[in-house]
Each structure stands twice: as structure tokens, then as C-alpha cells.
Design a protein that fits this description.
The chain is mainly alpha-helical. It contains ten helices and no strands.
């Protein structure tokens, strides 16, 4: 890896760790564990927490320097095209880090908010996540600049990027960073295996998003995240 790539990796990790909302998630878990067992992770509080967590995950997207170098139109387009993937992937990543799915009451609330199938595929996605957190943070950045929409069919017409070459060049930088990092740390054989597992993980992620679309509350969360982010980015 080059010095530039090490610096880029350091900036990505710092941005995600600073704005990901770890301390706030820990505080929420502590507050819930302080309650009587029957009152922990109830439907209403879990729904509010999920919306809050998804909004916080957006901060790592909003603070990305490469994103801020794009036009307002392209920032908006990337925001709308990737928001479901990023917030879902980031939420599952944070859930694994804080072992949220290990709390039965929280898991049950998720099934009410979304549905059993969506939550089941979310759990499979979490179980498939690579154990290297740094690698996943790079993947999160790649998703932010993805030009491929989630496989969900809507009535909205697609919006084209005005400078797709610049977006693709940024995307290529992060993809190369992911490959060089995993190659440097684990060698070629393990690098191939880990990328193969990542593809399987993303397929589970896509299925969980498709299933979650049946939930009105999921759509409302996504719309809220988009509105808040557009306001913050002054779009």
C-alpha cells in the first residue's frame, strides 16, 4: 500500500469512528439494561432508536471529503440511490459490534417493526460480515459511491449523475484500497475468500432490504434520513 492509501484508510477509520454514534448506542443499551426485564427494548423505543442510529450512520457519509468534492446534484443522486444499502449495512455492522441481536426483546421488536423474513435475512447478513472491521469500513465507503441501485422496483424515474467519470474514479480508489488492504494483511488466498464471502453477504443484505420494503415504517425511516441529510448538506 502507498502512503496515500494509508492516509486515506486512516481518514476513513477516523471519520467512521467519530461520527458513527458508538457512544450513543452504548448509552441506549445501558439505559435499556437498567430497566426491568419486561420493559427492555420495547417496540416504541426500539423504533425510535433504529431511526436515530440510521441517521447517525449518515454522518460518516456526510463528512466524506470525496463526497463534498462533488456537485450538489450528484451528492443528492448518490444519497438517494445508496441510502438503503448504506444505512442497512451500517446498521447491521453496528448491531454486530454492540451485539444488539443477542437481546431477545430487541430482536422481537425488530420483527414487529419490519417482518420476520427481513429480520432473519438481516441476521444472516450479520453472521456473514467479515470479522475485520477496517475492511467493512472501506466497503461502507464504496457503497457511498456506488452507481448501482438496490434491486427494488419503484415508480420513480432514475436520475443520472452529471459527472459519472469522477464518481467512478472515486469508487475505483476505494475498491483498490479494499483489495490492497486485504491483500496486505491476509495474503492473496485469503483475500479472494474474503471478497467471495463479501458477495454472499451483499446478496443477503439485498434480500433483507427487499423484504423490509413491505414495512411502512422502514420506508418512513429512509425518507426521514434523506430529508435530514439533504438539509445538513444544504442541498
Amino acid at each position: 500500500m502507498t502512503i496515500y492509501q494509508w492516509n486515506l484508510l486512516s481518514n476513513l477509520i477516523h471519520c467512521y469512528d467519530e461520527y458513527g454514534g458508538h457512544s450513543l448506542i452504548q448509552r441506549y443499551i445501558q439505559q435499556q439494561n437498567a430497566l426491568p426485564v419486561k420493559l427492555r427494548f420495547k417496540y416504541s423505543s426500539s423504533g425510535e432508536f433504529l431511526a436515530f442510529m440510521m441517521g447517525n450512520i449518515q454522518l460518516a457519509f456526510e463528512k466524506n471529503r470525496d463526497l463534498l468534492s462533488l456537485s450538489s446534484h450528484d451528492r443528492t443522486t448518490l444519497l438517494r440511490n445508496t441510502v438503503e444499502y448504506r444505512t442497512s449495512f451500517g446498521g447491521m455492522f453496528m448491531s454486530r459490534q454492540h451485539q444488539l441481536f443477542n437481546y431477545p426483546s430487541f430482536y422481537n421488536s425488530l420483527e414487529i417493526i419490519f417482518n420476520q423474513t427481513a429480520v432473519a435475512f438481516s441476521k444472516r447478513t450479520i453472521n456473514q460480515l467479515d470479522p475485520d472491521d477496517t475492511f467493512l469500513k472501506i466497503i461502507f465507503a464504496i457503497m457511498a459511491f456506488s452507481t448501482t441501485n438496490c434491486t427494488i422496483y419503484t415508480k420513480l424515474d432514475p436520475i443520472n449523475l452529471t459527472d459519472i467519470k469522477k464518481v467512478l474514479s472515486i469508487q475505483n480508489v476505494y475498491v483498490e484500497l479494499a483489495w490492497r488492504y486485504i491483500l496486505y494483511k491476509y495474503g492473496h488466498h485469503q483475500a479472494v475468500i474474503r471478497f467471495s464471502n463479501l458477495i454472499r453477504c451483499l446478496l443477503f443484505l439485498n434480500r433483507s432490504i427487499a423484504e423490509a420494503h413491505e414495512s411502512k415504517q422502514f420506508a418512513e425511516m429512509i425518507d426521514t434520513v434523506i430529508e435530514q441529510t439533504e438539509q445538513i448538506l444544504c442541498l
